[in-house]
Amino acid sequence: MRRRSLRALFVCLLLAARPVCAQDGARLPSAPVFLPPVPDPLTADERRELDVWIAAMRKWQRMDKRWHNEPAHDPFGRIVNREPKPAAPEWLDARCAALGPAEAGSAAPLGSACRMLAGLEQDPTAAAIRAQTITARAAAEKTAKHAFLTRVHIDGLWTSTASDVRVYGLIGSHISLVDVGRVQFFGPPGVILLSVPDGAGSREIRAGYTWGLSVRLGDVRLFAPSKNMTLFLTISKVWVPGGSVYDRLQGGGFDIAGFSLAPRKRGR
Length: 268
Prior knowledge:
Elements: H1 2-25, H2 44-66, E1 72-73, E2 79-80, H3 92-97, H4 101-104, H5 109-117, H6 124-147, E3 152-160, E4 168-175, E5 178-180, E6 183-197, E7 203-220, E8 229-239, E9 254-263
Antiparallel strand pairs: 1-2, 3-4, 3-9, 4-6, 5-6, 6-7, 7-8, 8-9
Helix pairs in contact: 2-5
């Protein structure tokens, strides 16, 4: 009885294995895949020749970037003949054609030389100089928009330097023109409101014109989280137009000194 059961189980296993064998016999259609041949490694002579050519090419690229579309000059300013483009090794073109995408994009000498041969690689020094030039130019153009505002001064807390006639400057403004170190000179006359004696024991408000210089004392913070203004000590000559009871207020003007504030220059 047990032998019959084993025989029946063996027959069932054979019947179940037949479709599997039939399926294993059917193969799916396929297409051959051809991989590019791996280039031979560089020999010692080829490596030396390639290093010499890469160095010459980078030197030529720097010269071409510096004297692009204009005569080349030596360190003394004399015009010299432009050096021709270095010729690549004869074997480099064929070796680059055999490179795959991974090898051509690598940092190995052969990959770098192939990109240089194809005009895809630039001199790193020239690229860095060009990037610095673009950044500096953008910063200069951005700062130029605010350069005029840094020359506009708000004047206040002024008083005359003479002790016989006391004149006070309340509020005014002037525009500086020339910077000499920490000193700024303003040529266009500034305007300031003055408190001057009226000759009857009282005072009156008069407008005056200023012309002088400002000395930078330091940067200060005014209604901002960081230092945004520059404090100046201003010494000026003031003229008061119109009639006055004091002759010195009509002709030669008088000396006055005080403080002024201007927006802080960026990068200082």
